[in-house]
Amino acid sequence: MTAALREEICRVGASLYARGYVHATAGNISVRTDTGYLITPTDACLGHLDPARLAEVDIHGQQMAGDRASKTLALHQRIYAADTDARCVIHTHSTHLVALTLAGAWSPDDIVPPITPYFVMKVGHVPLIRYRRPGDPAAGDEVARTIEAMHAKGTPIRAVVLERLGPNVWHRSPGEASAVLEELEETARLCQMVHPEPLTPAQIDELRVQFGARW
Prior knowledge:
Elements: H1 2-18, E1 28-32, E2 36-39, E3 55-58, E4 63-65, H2 73-82, E5 88-91, H3 95-103, H4 117-122, E6 128-129, H5 137-152, E7 159-162, E8 166-171, H6 174-194, H7 201-211
Parallel strand pairs: 6-7
Antiparallel strand pairs: 1-2, 1-5, 2-3, 3-4, 5-8, 7-8
Helix pairs in contact: 2-5, 3-6
C-alpha cells in the first residue's frame, strides 16, 4: 500500500507540474498513512519526484526515512487533525489564486464567487487565510479554526487559500485532492477573465437538492 501511495504522489505531482499548476520547487503533497505521513521533501520539484526519496514521518512528525520533510508538514498535520476524513493534502502557489489574494477576495469566506455548478459541487466554500510567513505555526492555527468553524455551521470545506501563498486542498486521495485544486484554480482564472455574476440562490439550492452540493 505504501509503495502505491508513493507512486500516486509522484504521478499527481508530475501531472500538476506538466500543466502549470505548480512551478519550480513551490508546493507540496502529503498523504496520511496508518503509521504517520508521507510528504514531499523540502525544496523538491513536484515534477521530478522520486518515490524512494519521499519523506516518511511518524504520527508525531518525527522523520523516519527519506529526504528532509517539507517545512509545511505542521500545517498539513493541523488540517488532518481538524478534518478526520482527509487523507491527502496538496499545497501549491497556483498563479490565478495567488493573484486573487493580491487583488482582493470575493469575501473572507469565499476566495471566488460560486460562478459554475461544478465549482459549487466539487469544491464549495473556500475561505481566505490572512498572510503569515511560510511555516508560521499561527497559519496552521487559523486554518484549523476555520475548518472547525465551517463544520460547526454545517458547511464542511475541503480547501482554503493562504494570502500571497496559494491554496491548500484536501480529500480522500491524491487524485481527488488534485481534482479539487484544478477546479479551484480554473474558477479563479475564469473570474479574472470575465468577471462573471455568481449563480443565484435558487440555482445553488437546485444543486443542493439534485446533487447534494455542500454550499
